[in-house]
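To whoever is on call:

I kicked off a structure prediction for a single chain this morning and the downstream step that reads the tokens threw a length-mismatch warning. I double-checked the sequence; it's 392 residues and nothing unusual in it as far as I can see. Pasting both halves so you can look.
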Amino acid sequence: MKAPTTLTIGVVAVMSASACAVDPAAAQDVIKLGLSVPLSGSAANWGKGSEFMCQKAAEEINQAGGIKASGKTYNFECITYDNKYNAAEGTKVAQTLINRDAVKFIGGALGTAPTKALQAIAERQDVLLFTVSWGKSLKGPEHPMTFTQQNTPYEILPPLIGYVVKQHSQAKTVAMLNPNDATGQETEPVAKATYEKNGIKVFASDYYERGTTEFQAIAARIASFKPEIIDVGSTPPADAGAIFKALDLMGWKGVKVNETGTGADTLKETGGDAAEGVYMGSGVVFDGDTVSAYQRKLNDEARKLLGEDLNTIQIGFYDAVYALKTAMETANSVEAKKVAETLPDITFPTFYGGKVGFFGKETYGNVQQMRLPILVTQVQKGKLVQVHRIDP
């Protein structure tokens, strides 16, 4: 059966602001949700969109009556700092959020290296941490306060790579490229093993430094292997576009994959026509009759800010806020440790429609991964199209 080409998004169940809103000032307390995200550099749009989605979810919950726990009413407030996608800045942000701002709940952290820096402090001080970061080392029984709010390579890559290989059965070789940081280093072995499992020979697997702006030399090396597939792994779309453009100018024609690809707009800005045909693992399509008016409205607001559609990274920051609300009210507590103990057992409204919960015991040794839809998208005639979807 052919997969639908649009994302099925349901209406998140929130009460009407006009009918049920409360004055935020009337709430008895405020729960700060700290965000550690890149607000500068090639991944800045991911961070700005993540902040937008946290604020939207918090606003909806606050207007609908807030969080009821321990006999009190609470409101959420999102506090965001730029981690510049590196460990040093991530450490500064962690110290600011936890030690200065006294944050007990991290609504989202982006980037494995800055998240590890944040986690080192958060776990010691019983701060609940949500992250979209891809590193498997962030999860497990030794990290009971950490939860993942987006699909990671272990969820995304088997269906993404499997779909690509099936669509291009003539392709037998791949060259891989990743950023030279914790995210890239933890993504690479998962992707390599997945390609090999699908009968694809890995000709090369290289790394580049974040902040690189000239990709001709890197592209020349990758193209020299004459691979039939080039997978740029956890490379942000702005860098991915520049890489594919350089490859195109060298005459390389093959199958293009961007595992963390989130949309066509940014990819086209740097890649131009070379963005055509790129497969992505983190994009979302917001057209079609199956998309609710509310979700389209929220995405339209985001486009005015970001210049592109929302994506699975940013949606995680919305879902985390609803997960926290549900866990707090279920536990009847806003004590971070009690909320963390409750999260694995709840289901909560998701931006994708319906309700989801957590899983991951088999893969990570602990239940701390949101169970979310898997979406495979591709740039077709300059537009992002959903080509495959797996619902939990």
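Update from on-call: the warning came from a stale cache, not from the record. Cleared it. Sanity check on the structure: The chain has 13 helices and 17 strands.
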